[in-house]
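Contributing new records

If you add data, match the layout below exactly. Sequence lines come first and carry their own label; structure lines follow with theirs. Keep one chain per record. Anything else will be rejected by the validation script.
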Amino acid sequence: MNSKERFQAALAYHTPDRPPTKHYGTPEINNALMQHLGVSTYEQLQLKVGDDFRHVGPRYIGPALRTFPDGSWEGLWGERYANWSFGGGTYPEAVYLPFANLADPADLPARPASYYAEPPFPAPAWTDIASPTGRFPSPDWFDYSCIKEDIAKLQGYVVCTGDAGTPDFMNGIARCRGVERVLFDVGEENPVYLALMAQRFDFQYEMYRRVLEAAGGAIDVLCLGEDYGNQNGLMISPRKFDKLFAPYMKKLFDLAHHYGAKAMMHCCGSNRQLIPRFIELGLDILEVVQVDAAGMDITELHDHFYGKIAFCGSISVQNTLPFGTVQDVVREVELRKRLFAQGGMIIAATHDIQVGTPLDNILAMYRTIGSLS
């Protein structure tokens, strides 16, 4: 089987030749793996570990995103990022939050004309006017003419578009407003936050509608993301999810299905309580299945949800991969191969594999999956 056939078999609960897999790694881990495996590019690394997924997206042609004298750089919404060292590597963190002090949604830039292609979705509107508190990007800032050509180079692979930052209402808006402020916003249903949610959705929905339209049905997966859980439980109530988030997520799941793609949603932490709602809303694949969080044991998830939703991930980057033995890794992968022998699982790490993880454990994961070349 090639990657696409393997993925399609697994999603249809027909036994694949091996479980599909997807590679997740920090830049530091990727560089270490490339050096160990004797390859020089990320694409070559994907081939070596047997990553079945490839990504396409539009090319940015919008206003130049600035880099500042302190080394920080600008994001689409006017936020700024800088690399922060965590020992052994760096991670980009938001260092300027353009909407942090915004108290009145009337202070947001106006939203003019609509251009949704078809009902029943609400009409979005756009402005690229920068304001003292940030700006709203436009899908017109991207070139979609490359999509078909890029897909043509990926014959036999699972073709994805989108990422964990779509719509990412909590993390994404927190990078413009602050984590603590956003948690209060959700609880209070702050009008500024609700307006930012609507703007973010409108922009991302239309951008990925154009990508899917340009692909002409050749995209297999629309990748989405929203973190609802932490280590011990949900960060928001199921009621709050239904009121604020579910309507947007259903529209994104429906968008994927309209163009013949599967909807895959990255969701960290303990989100066990929401899985039945994800299924009702039409989610096809739950990513990344953080098994160390409360209620996320893979055997129990299999027993409750097998055949109703597929899973991607579940090999722990908190415990098994960094602190277990090779034998521990092999045992965890073999368990998943038994549970999901007839499909329903993409075996992968539960997040980007972190600095300090033994390479032998990473290679053991891919070797046991059967993907390492």
